[in-house]
Amino acid sequence: MAVRLAADAKNRGVDVSALDEKANDGLTTVLLVSGPESTGKTTLVNRLLEEDSRFVRPILMDRMVDGVKFEQKEARGEFLQIDGRFGLVKEGILQAAEKAMDGGDPAEKKVVVVDADADTAKKLVQISGARVIGVWIGLDDLEKFESRLKLKISSGAVKIPDDETEDSVLRAKVRQVVKDIEFGVVSGVFEFTILNEDINDSVRQLKEAANYCF
User: Any idea what the Cα angle at residue 176 is, between residues 79 and 162, rounded to 5°?
Assistant: First the structure.
């Protein structure tokens, strides 16, 4: 809504530069990289982090270290994502860039990169205090998703429940891919889309998109 109002004001010749500066004040820039399973987005995020020191990972809570606090947040549904023993909360995103700058060059801005599935992305864009730059990672054909998912299942990377088969698990995952793509298209969150066919070219595109964080 704020973006639409500002665009309308600019079209009517209103000087909104001061309003833009005030609107941006105090917000933490977050690079959100999301997409369906098996697109290779995690590989792209890791390459970006390895090759550009301006980007940092969010701070995760460790179930083994944080113990009771972790369990309390889990019970209250405060985690954006839980991956095994590690959990992602709002504060871990908003504070990561500031902590990464401690003792460093204050002129070198840091940006937090969040590697998120579609469900996590839906939660992240609703948190206050963040300015999200969204990059969607996909493939150009549903058959390519299916082929990659088949390889993942056959390799044993995906556990097959006792009451299901490889085919039923594959069908469920393909349905989820379609749902995720629908979210990526209609959400309005993602300014950039990368079809990850060539890893080096995709890394280049991600770096170009990431520059908009600055």
Answer: 90
In our burial notation (b when 16+ CB lie closer than 10 A, e otherwise), range 27-42 reads ebbbbbbbbbbbbbbe
Q: Which residues contact 64 (CB under 8 A, 6 or more apart)?
A: 85
Higher pLDDT, 115 or 103: 115
Residues in the chain: 214
Residue 34 is predicted with a pLDDT of 98
Q: What is the pTM of this model?
A: 0.83
pLDDT the model gives residue 1: 44
Strand residues in 46-169 grouped as ranges (E) = 55-56, 61-62, 81-83, 86-88, 111-116, 130-138
For the chain, how many helices (H) and strands (E)? Answer: 11, 8
Secondary element (H or E) of residue 179: helix 166-186
Q: Is there a contact between 209 and 191 (Cβ–Cβ < 8 Å)? A: yes
